[in-house]
Amino acid sequence: MKKILIVEDEEKIRKVINILVKSDEVAADEASDGMEALNKIKNNDYDLVILDLMLPVVDGMTILKDIRADSRTAALPVIVVSAKNLNQDLLDGFQGGANYYITKPFEPKELIDSIELILGVKY
Fold first, then answer.
1. What's the CATH number of domain 2-119, 3.30.1330.60, 3.40.50.720, 3.40.50.1480, 3.40.50.2300?
2. Residues 6+ apart with CB under 8 A from 43
3. What are phi and psi of 97, to 5 degrees?
4. Nearest Cα residue to 54 out of 95, 85, 28
C-alpha cells in the first residue's frame, strides 16, 4: 500500500484530492498547514507528497526545501499543486525540487496520471 500526504489549506480542495487519490493501492493522509505537514513528514513514511505552495504557518517552498535537505526524505517525490502559475513560479518549483507541477484549477486526470507515473500504480 502506497501512502500519500496531501498538504492543502483549502478543505474542499484537500477533500477532492483525497477522494481522487485513494484506491486499493493508495492510502491518503492530510495536513492543512505547513507546520502540520512538516511534523507528519518527520514522523511518518510517505511514498509521495502533494503540496500546495500557499499555506498558513509555513509555506510550501520552505517545506519542499526541508524535504530535499533531509537525507531521510531527500528522494521523496513531491507533486506541487498550486494556483501560482507564472513561468517563474513553475521554474522555482522545479528548482526547489518538485517532481511535477500542476496549476490550479487542475484536471483530475492530470493529477491521477502524475501519481501513476511517480508511484507506478493504476487507477
1. 3.40.50.2300
2. none
3. 120, 10
4. 85
Phi, psi of 104, deg, nearest 5: -85, 145
Strand partners, 6: 30, 50
pLDDT of residue 100: 97
For each successive 10 residues of the chain (123 residues), what is the average pLDDT? 97 97 96 98 98 97 97 98 96 97 96 96 93
Please state the domain extents for the chain. 2-119
Can you give the pLDDT at residue 74?
97
What are the cell numbers at 68? 530535499
